[in-house]
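Example with several molecule types.
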Amino acid sequence: MLAELGHFALLLMVVTGIGQAVLFSPLWLRSSMRMIAPKHATASATGPALSDSVEDSGFPSVPQPANLFLLPAVIMLLALFVEAALLNAFIVSDFTLPIVSGVSHSSTPLLYRIGAAFTPDGGAMLLWLVALSLVNVLLAVQLRYLASSGPTDANDNRFCQNTLSIVGFLIAILGVVTLIDADPFLRTTVAPLDGRGMNPQSQDILKVLREPFLYLGLAGLGGIFALTLSGLLDRAIDRRLGETLRFWTMASWVCLSAAIALNAYRSYSEQAWGGWWYWDTAENSLLLPWLLATALMHCRAVLEKTETLKSWTAFLGITALAAGWFGAYLTRSDLFAPLPETQLIPSDSVGLLVAFCLVFGCAYYLFWRAGDEMRDRRTFDLVSRESAMFLNSVMLSLIAAVVLIGTIYPLVLQWMTGDPITVGAPFYVEVLVPIVLPLLFLMAFAPALRWRQDEAWMVGRRMKLAAILSLITVLFVSIRFIDLSPAPLIGIGLAGWVLTASISDLWARLWRHPEHGESKYRNLQLLGPRYISMTLAHIGLAVLIAGGSASSIWEEQVVVSARAGQSIQVGPYNLQYEGVSLLAGENYATRQATFILYRHSLPVTELFPEIRYYPIRGVETREADIWHGRDGDLHVSIGDRDDDGGRVVTAHYLPMMPWVWAGMILMLIGGCFSILTRIILRLKKNGVSTS
Amino acid sequence: MRFSLAVIPLILFVALAGVFLLNIDKDSSVVPSVLIDKPAPEFSLPPLPGRDAGLSRADLTTGNVSVLNVFASWCIPCRAEHPLIKRLSREGGVPVFGLNYKEKNPEDGVKWLAELGDPYKAVGMDLSGRTGIDFGVYGVPETFIIDGTGQIKYKHVGPVTVEVLEQILLPKIAELKG
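Resulting structure tokens for the full complex:
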């Protein structure tokens, strides 16, 4: 019954979404009014009394800021109810719903029954819808706040309503796609006695956590899309839009980064070969929107500061969502792998593709029409922070283009010639390295450059220390490890360059000579949350690159057939194999090996890699166990039994691998810091202004 | 100049969208199940205890479309789908063969069929699961549709439901029979 109510609520949500799209958009009303009563239209277009004049003439009024919240709140409640209905079906294991019986089983633990709700198409779409309705409410709050804090005019109202109208449209169209492509609430006439079980590969807390972050990120991009588009409608890609976009770019970026980090750690701990990035479709479809969100984050700052790069920012604002949407389509369609047989009637997500074409066809058309009027009034020099940020976002977009091409090239080739090919890491490394290296090189300059114009020699002086230090690092590494190939060496050198540049810039700012009468904490205050979060994120990236390069160079791998009591030497560690015991997990049986890890003959820890067998699906998964030491990760996994009775043990020593994780965490902290300080500052300011 | 630049995203987008929209129908078997359109593996299985005819590849290559259903007495979904297999055998107009997969006790399959009814034209007993592996069985029950030359044309993993029977299996069989 709850499922039927959920189904109905989903329908209502679509209707309310359409309602929001139509009611909030003065555009459609105005165009229809223009046909009926031209004189009102001209009056409303010019004067601030837009809605008054409409009301006078007896036409339905455009919602005032006061009741801005009604529809978003209703949609939010409906979305929460729909999600609750679906989760309930999974929690009580209602196998009359094919979506439940397809990916869940009565023996699946509660946490993963909930997690399983996000894995099928219908569940994922619902999660996206819930996230989008949250964005809808937050946008209404933010726009209301903007309207109440500053001087308002009809333009602001229109902007605000256009934005919400576009979000309402997105909600409606995604709701329709959910109902057409993968209706989660359809029942089957004959319920199976039990479900098919969750995909064991997904039965992992990191995988379960990844989904909400991914869809929050995508929904955030939806907010950006709506704001950008309504800016384009108003021909107002300006400083205020840049400021409004600030929270959304940061929030989406943080969510997408978190999803990527979780995904990377997941594949690192799952697979037997100790890698954390595979360039597969699911990862690429995460990476695409992340790259564009990163690019957007930078040129948005330029837009806010100097009102330049208007069209480029607008382009990225639209394209970031396009990339996320397209990625969602790619992973969900049957283009790369046959769909799981769990789906009753396999839908290849055509609805998602058609909606994609519709939404972004309109968006890019609008971009083209408005592009004419988006000339930047100001200019900037070649040597200036604007141009560094611009180059940076162009390079990030180039990287995104390469990833996109690498992902869809095999498909297009297959459609044209029929030969299946795969594009793997070598392609990406070969093509991306020449873009990433200059990107890193330039990245170090941006914080030290001045806005508008700067002198090359001045910059050189500021970067002197960083250049010397990073050259010393490269020299040291290349002397110490004489037979090193140049590519990773350049990687390490550039990571050092970014790191030292960030730190020396911070240093220089901290020790700026205080002007007369300033407190000695003035320098600290001058840094500001933006600068701190940017520095954290840049340092994080440098640390990540250094860790990634170093671990790829100095990785040690040992594969042996081990017997109980045998000792395996890998890197600075000694692994003693104690044997395998058969244990029962909640819904799996596991062969768990025990290793004692020694360093310099002192025991460090015990490690328990496993081979799990999930009987419901009859699938084995291998779970590595990892020790994060201070100078590197020890990654150990077990394989099958050998012919001679030994157990195949794969041990990796990955020096500096913790740097990769630390780098990701630093970047995330940087992003969160920026959002939190912003919110706190806003609230404080608000408190002051009202009191 | 701006004007012409701003149209580039639209052009690229239309090109990309066009390529994908035009190929919507082509993509459904980029990485097909390895067995689809491949000849069924060579096998020869003994009969159930107390019966004469076992099952071998020759039964599948008689020129008629046939269905091979993998079942086991220990498998609960098999019990659930069994009435539909009977219906398939009645309505499909093609012989339905059974592959009794990995029984602990050879008698179990016979008892199970005696209890629930036997829709199969012939049943082979795969105690070791070797033939099942050749067929790529990874979750019992599974149902294969095989054409007259012994080529596997369709594979359904999991219990057959009314929807699967009516919307996939029967139309597929009718299509193959021509």
